[in-house]
């Protein structure tokens, strides 16, 4: 999902689905943060749909309000707290209404949330959504309810997610949960638990189901998709204890990509997010092998300085990262890359900052997600390192990185001009209701005039004649 270059967590997004006959209760469900949270919200809606809840976009008519939260930065948590404050008067008017907090913020704060936010009745972590029916019974009895137990097994593989909102063209398919990487700045291992992979057959069935229901593009999701490893179930860390037969029949990410591409040969396939130390040459080869796997990789680097990378526990060096990029471009010549960058990490010097800038110039990213470092309670960096870079220095360095990425993005977009691209129509342009918007294989957004006979979900040939910093301007060709 291509965003502006701003230091801002994606704002809450409310969803609604078609009503199920017989359901009498109303659920208002709002998601914040990453794509995994939006995917999880679809799982939650599916579970509660079976418990008598239909979703609504009108918060004032809700019997149950759920916020699926993000803890990646302090600003994300502040946004959720401000949103909760907006419900206080509504709660007074409707005392029987239940307010719950889901996801990473719930997992991080646990019972503290109930103490700090008197409005909240329900606190549920990412691995406890199956327990929602029981927890809601607790709240009906006037008691607060909480389940933040992390699981080593839960993947929700058997739950067919209800597709919330969206465009009916693109969908997320979760393939892994949790993370074992322990980057020192990151709260995810503590809020989403150990890494485990989902049964590949359930993934393929979900992808087939989506194709049969008219979807044309899927994004395989995980905190670290490249570490996908199915050997019959259980955490990846226990793979060493697996039987010889389990090891021989195990499925890694490159093999999963191959299986999905063959199973739904006309479906466009993307994946996110990758980790440099887990990314393999085989994944690039699968992208080259299958036309329906998009030529785009989101490959977070976080810093261009080896010293900072080591402090972050990133498990890759600058040179290893650059070698991986080089290999990807050799195997898939038209491939595009995007980045995540943390600016102003503990003890970052001006030299470290310049190394980040030089790495960006060398890679020439299509776009990126850039943020100043935000100390997260409970992480190794919070416990052992000093957040010692002044705010004004962080902001100045961030501004320089954003400006550079703007230059690189414009240059990359210019490289697509004068060529014909296959673009999947995903919706109507926000700026012009007479234009379609979509993305090419490299994930670049393209807008073009509507033509008679074109519909959402069509893949059309578009000649790109111009560009802006983040958008291609084109016209359809026969």
TrEMBL record:
- Domain TRAM span(s) in chain numbering: 414-478
Q: Which InterPro entries match?
A: Elp3/MiaA/NifB-like_rSAM, Methylthiotransferase, Methylthiotransferase_CS, Methylthiotransferase_N, Methylthiotransferase_N_sf, MiaB_methiolase, rSAM, rSAM_horseshoe
Give the UniProt entry's GO cellular component terms: cytosol
* Record-linked PROSITE patterns: MTTASE_N, MTTASE_RADICAL, RADICAL_SAM, TRAM
Q: Which residues cross the membrane?
A: none
Keywords associated with the record? 4Fe-4S, Cytoplasm, Iron, Iron-sulfur, Metal-binding, S-adenosyl-L-methionine, Transferase, tRNA processing
Report the cofactor remark: Binds 2 [4Fe-4S] clusters. One cluster is coordinated with 3 cysteines and an exchangeable S-adenosyl-L-methionine.
Catalysed reaction, written as an equation: N(6)-dimethylallyladenosine(37) in tRNA + (sulfur carrier)-SH + AH2 + 2 S-adenosyl-L-methionine = 2-methylsulfanyl-N(6)-dimethylallyladenosine(37) in tRNA + (sulfur carrier)-H + 5'-deoxyadenosine + L-methionine + A + S-adenosyl-L-homocysteine + 2 H(+)
Q: Which GO terms describe its molecular function?
A: 4 iron, 4 sulfur cluster binding; metal ion binding; tRNA-2-methylthio-N(6)-dimethylallyladenosine(37) synthase activity
What cofactor does its activity depend on? [4Fe-4S] cluster
Q: Where does [4Fe-4S] cluster 1 bind?
A: 34, 70, 104
Q: Which SUPFAM superfamilies match?
A: Radical SAM enzymes
Q: Supply the EC number(s).
A: 2.8.4.3
Q: Which residues form the MTTase N-terminal domain?
A: 25-141
Which residues make up the binding site for [4Fe-4S] cluster 2?
179, 183, 186
Top-level division of the source organism's lineage: Bacteria
Q: Which family does it belong to?
A: Belongs to the methylthiotransferase family. MiaB subfamily.
The role this protein plays is: Catalyzes the methylthiolation of N6-(dimethylallyl)adenosine (i(6)A), leading to the formation of 2-methylthio-N6-(dimethylallyl)adenosine (ms(2)i(6)A) at position 37 in tRNAs that read codons beginning with uridine.
State how it assembles.
Monomer.
Q: What name does the UniProt record give this protein?
A: tRNA-2-methylthio-N(6)-dimethylallyladenosine synthase
């Amino acid at each position: 999902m291509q965003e502006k270059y701003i230091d801002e967590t994606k704002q809450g997004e409310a969803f609604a689905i078609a009503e199920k006959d017989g359901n009498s209760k109303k659920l208002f469900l709002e998601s914040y943060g990453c794509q995994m949270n939006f995917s999880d919200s679809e799982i939650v809606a599916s579970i509660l749909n079976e418990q008598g809840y239909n979703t609504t976009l009108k918060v004032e008519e809700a019997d149950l309000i759920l916020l699926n939260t993000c803890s990646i930065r302090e600003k994300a948590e502040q946004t959720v707290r401000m949103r909760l404050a907006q419900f206080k008067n509504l709660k007074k008017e409707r005392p029987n209404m239940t307010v719950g907090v889901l996801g990473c913020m719930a997992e991080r704060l646990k019972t503290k949330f109930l103490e700090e936010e008197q409005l909240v009745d329900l606190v549920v972590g990412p691995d406890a959504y199956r327990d929602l029916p029981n927890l809601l019974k607790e709240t009906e009895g006037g008691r607060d309810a909480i389940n933040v137990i992390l699981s080593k097994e839960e993947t929700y593989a058997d739950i067919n997610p209800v597709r919330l909102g969206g465009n009916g063209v693109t969908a997320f398919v979760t393939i892994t949960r949790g993370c074992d990487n322990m980057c020192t700045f990151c709260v995810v291992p503590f809020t989403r638990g150990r890494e485990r992979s989902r049964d590949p057959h359930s993934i393929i069935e979900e992808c087939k189901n989506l194709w049969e229901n008219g979807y044309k593009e899927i994004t395989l999701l995980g905190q670290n998709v490249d570490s996908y490893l199915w050997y019959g179930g259980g955490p990846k860390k226990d793979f060493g204890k697996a039987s010889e037969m389990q090891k021989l029949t195990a499925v890694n990410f490159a093999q999963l990509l191959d299986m999905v591409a063959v199973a739904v040969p006309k479906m466009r396939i993307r994946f996110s997010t990758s980790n440099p130390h887990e990314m393999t040459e085989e994944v690039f080869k699968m992208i080259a092998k299958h036309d329906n796997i998009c030529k785009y990789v989101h490959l977070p680097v976080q810093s261009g300085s080896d010293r900072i990378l080591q402090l972050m526990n990133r498990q890759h060096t600058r040179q290893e990262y650059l070698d991986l990029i080089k290999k990807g471009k050799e195997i898939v010549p038209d491939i595009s890359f995007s980045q995540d960058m943390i600016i102003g990490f503990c003890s970052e010097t001006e030299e470290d900052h310049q190394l980040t800038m030089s790495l960006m110039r060398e890679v020439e990213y299509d776009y990126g997600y850039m943020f100043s470092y935000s100390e997260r309670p409970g992480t190794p960096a919070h416990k052992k390192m000093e957040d010692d870079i002044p705010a004004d220095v962080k902001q100045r360095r961030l501004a320089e990185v954003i400006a550079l990425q703007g230059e690189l993005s414009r240059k990359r977009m210019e490289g697509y001009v004068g060529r014909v691209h296959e673009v999947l129509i995903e919706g109507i342009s926000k700026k012009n209701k007479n234009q379609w918007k979509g993305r090419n294989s490299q994930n670049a957004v393209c807008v073009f005039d509507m033509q008679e006979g074109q519909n959402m979900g069509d893949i059309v040939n578009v000649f790109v004649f111009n560009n802006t910093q983040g958008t291609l301007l084109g016209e359809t060709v026969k």
